[in-house]
Amino acid sequence: MTRNAPSTEDKIKEAARKLFVEKGFGSATTRDIAECAETNVALVNYYFRSKENLFQAVFQESFAQTFVPIAGILNDDLPLEVKIYKFVDQITDLLKRAPMLPIFILSEMRGEHAPMCQAMQQAGAMQPADGFRKQLEEEAAKGHIRPVDARQVEANLMALVLFPFLGMNILKMKHQMSDEDFSKFVDERKKVVPETILAYLRSGLV
Amino acid sequence: MTRNAPSTEDKIKEAARKLFVEKGFGSATTRDIAECAETNVALVNYYFRSKENLFQAVFQESFAQTFVPIAGILNDDLPLEVKIYKFVDQITDLLKRAPMLPIFILSEMRGEHAPMCQAMQQAGAMQPADGFRKQLEEEAAKGHIRPVDARQVEANLMALVLFPFLGMNILKMKHQMSDEDFSKFVDERKKVVPETILAYLRSGLV
DNA sequence: GTCTATAACGGGATAGAC
DNA sequence: GTCTATCCCGTTATAGAC
User: Fold this and answer.
1) Structural domain of residue A7, as residue ranges?
2) Are A129 and A150 in contact (CB under 8 A)?
3) Judgement on whether residues A26 and A67 belong to the same structural domain of the protein
4) DSSP A112
5) Does residue B11 register a pLDDT over 80?
6) Are the beta carbons of B162 and B102 closer than 8 angstroms?
7) Distance CA B34, CA B11 (A)
8) Are residues A123 and A177 in the same domain?
9) Chain A neighbours among B 136-195 (CB < 8 Å)?
10) Measured in angstroms, what separates residue A149's CA from nucleotide D8's C1'?
């Protein structure tokens, strides 16, 4: 089972992924995409019928690639502390390989494409992290952590992990970071972020 | 001193702000903008010479409106705990009035417009929060908090405050929030976020 | 300053040959 | 499946009358 040469369809989708993520739906053109895929516009429309269609395909894959693992780990059956470290570690590594995915998803999910949200909600791409909520309630009942709003804790986790990638350009500029500096910075956060979350959960206990 | 009717130039800039923020540079058209400002495309180019020019004007104002207050409060001369509460409170209220600003700024700061970053860096729009760093060092020396990397703490603060607005659509969808629910959610964060930051700073002290 | 009209170009999409 | 050529429309920008 050797690695096949990618089909034209795949090359187009890859090119589309690259350019949509980099420039957004409005600024990426089908001509760009065709050229980047080393074909022509006719083939783009042959395989995907329209730019909008191609975008939907790319967006949904990107969304699944990012947010399904997030919900997955949160609902895993693991001790709380282990889970939080695992979450930060794995999502950080995932994002280091695709740093523009979060800003792409969040920025395209407005304006004309805002209705997509609802569509994906119904497609079940967006599980409410119920397992995580229950776990927090149980730990609070046992007195291991203080009682908390699970939505707030989940938002904090997502915020702390995603933000450096969302604001990558600003961070690099502000602190004059090279790519390598940035990579170190987010690796350090594999320690900082879980400590932050756990300090909050454990604060105010008698 | 009564409220003057807005000049044509101001109406155009307002319309541009609305549409650029809502749809992004690529998807907003000068026709949209002209119509929204109740004029015509000729006047848009009369006042701003090009779409790109108009965009720059709008973007720089938006950037200053968002990130200058952030750096400002962090460098204020206030006790640490007071400052953190003030920061979260004021930035949250600011963003409640302009919830799309953060996603607009971060999403436009890529691709073709990425070079803008450097331009604004040099324009001094991006002070490194040096006062805040020194304050954290002093407090650590006094044993009030543990020794920390100021960049990480600053990133945490920004992340926790900005993220709900960056991910507004996802949050609302995920938790089935109305506008009012969302407003309550971010108001609750005026307590959660400072507690989170302070718990981290104070954790591990003997 | 403001308008109408139009130029000049680039965009998405398709027809039709191979 | 793949290509070239082309259509048609929307877009940015400008010319020129008022």
Assistant:
1) 1-49
2) yes
3) no
4) G
5) yes
6) yes
7) 9
8) yes
9) 149, 151-152, 155-156, 158-160, 162-164, 166-167, 169-171, 173-175, 185, 188-189, 192-193, 195
10) 56
The pLDDT assigned to A180 comes to: 98
Same domain, A64 and A157: yes
A17, A79: one domain: no
CB contact under 8 A, B199 and A195: no
A91 and A9 fall within a common domain: no
Tokens of B58: 């709008």
In this structure, is residue B28 part of a structural domain?
Answer: yes
* pLDDT confidence of residue A128: 77
CB contact under 8 A, A27 and B109: no
Per-residue pLDDT reduced to its tens digit, B142-178: 999 999 999 999 999 999 999 999 999 999 999 999 9
Q: Are residues B154 and B187 in the same domain?
A: yes
A43 and A66 fall within a common domain: no
A151/D1 CA-to-C1' distance in Å:
50
> Which pTM value belongs to this model?
0.96
pLDDT tens column, A45-95: 999 999 999 999 999 999 999 988 998 999 999 999 999 999 999 999 999
The token pair that represents B72 in the structure block: 């400002």
Residue A54 lies in a domain: no
Locate A2 and state its tokens. 């050797």
Q: Is residue A160 part of a domain?
A: yes
Q: At a CB cut-off of 8 Å and minimum separation 6, what does A197 contact?
A: A84, A153, A156, A157, A160, B196
Residue found under tokens 């109740």: B38
